[in-house]
Amino acid sequence: MVYHYRERINYVGINDSYLGPVQELILAGGPLFRDSTAGWIVFHPGEGMAESYVLVILRGDTMRIDLPEDPKQLVDRAWRRWDRETPEVVRFRKGHCAMEQLAAGPWAIAAAQHLAKQLIAEDDAAYKQQLADLEEYYRELPSPAPPPTPYIPPAPMTPEQWEAERAKLPGLKNVQVDRTSADTVWVRFTGRVMLNGGCGSGMPLFGVELMTDTGWVERIPFELIQMDRGMPWADWEDHTVMIPPLRWWVGAHSPEGQKELAPGSYRFFFVGGDRKEKRTAPFAVE
After folding, report:
1. What is the pLDDT of residues 231-241, one digit of tens each?
2. Which pTM was predicted?
3. Total structural domains in the chain?
4. Which helix (H) or strand (E) holds 102?
5. Beta-bridge mates of residue 187
6. From the CB of residue 68, how many other CB atoms can be counted at a distance below 10 Å?
7. Could you tell me the residue range of the domain that residue 237 belongs to?
8. Which band of pLDDT confidence, cut at 50, 70 and 90, is reported for residue 263?
9. Is residue 145 part of a domain?
């Protein structure tokens, strides 16, 4: 058996088409649905072929079966026959025939219905067996593990608990003025100190206090606020850091009218890892 066909090919951008070259496909026998139908010649013709036919040669006799370009008539007949795909059955007849006429003959109709019942019965039986196999598979599976205990998040920490946790962290052991030059001061650190969090910065957070007639007051309001580009803290042992010049620092962080740094006695205070403040000894700014 040989399938001959020519495909209708549309022109690009033009509402017209042309016929492609003649193609041939050798057909061989094989199972139709299940192994019980082995030996049938089963053929699914291509759809939308402009010219197609099957050539059957049996002991020197030839049968040519012309196939329609639009298979709708054959498809509708098959769906009226059953609720799923079933084949048409054609008996060898010497000569030139159209598929629509062969499939509409009484013998072809009766043979197709008989084969459809047989194949669908086998298909249903195989489906029932598959369901039975699945039931047995799931029946033999071990019992599922009990669901895990749902996660219960801990209660939010109270302010007192936060303070207790902070108190466990290392603090500053010692801060002392190492030396001064005009309004620039070097401070020596031992312990954990909170940094300002600047990118690549090792500058600690610090506040500035001024001695007045009523005692020590903050020269600039201190806020425990860190940037998020660098380390939040550092552990130092006898480490010296130069604090920015006080006149520049006060001028850059004070409102208009309060930028001048008056001569007097000043001191720094820093924050340890335990959030406790540590102050330096006073130093003079002329």
Report:
1. 899 999 999 99
2. 0.47
3. 2
4. helix 99-103
5. 177, 241
6. 15
7. 169-285
8. very high
9. no
